Amino acid sequence: MDGWRRWALALLALLLMGWVLWPRPALGLETAAVPRTLESRGASLFAQHCVGCHLNGGNVIRRGKTLRLAALKRAGLEGAEAMARVAAHGQGQMAGYGAVMGEDGAQAVGAWVWEQALADWPKAEQKITKEPS
To answer: By the 8 A CB rule, do 127 and 79 touch?
Structure first.
């Protein structure tokens, strides 16, 4: 093989290896620039920090202290701001999560929780229709 062809082939192989091995941004970094809605951020933060005790708006620690609309009204908690205040600072035995939710995280969770309470905490299984018998 001629000398210049050997060099051209080596250069082509080097360029191909560089293209294949060049680091690409992580999947999470690509989506981080996309602005998220308040609702999706609230749902995500709720899933990360709250669902362990408040699955489907319930309460596995204190049965009567749920996130259902009637229970919230009994506790004097009405509106997204009240929910955000409890999420950030806690209430009673519940600790606050404002520091771990980040800036405006409590507001996002509060808005999402209040929306779910108004909708009576819809569940995915309620959307499934029965098959005809």
So the answer is: no
Give buried/exposed letters for 89-104 (b at 16+ CB in 10 A, else e). Answer: eeeeebeebbeebeee
Record the tokens describing residue 7, joined without a space.
């060099």
Q: What architecture (CATH level 2) is domain 37-121?
A: Orthogonal Bundle (1.10)
User: Which residue ranges make up each domain of the chain?
Assistant: 37-121
Is the pTM value of this prediction over 0.85? no
Q: 82-117 pLDDT, tens per residue?
A: 999 999 999 988 999 999 998 899 999 999 999 999
Tokens of 73: 């009204």
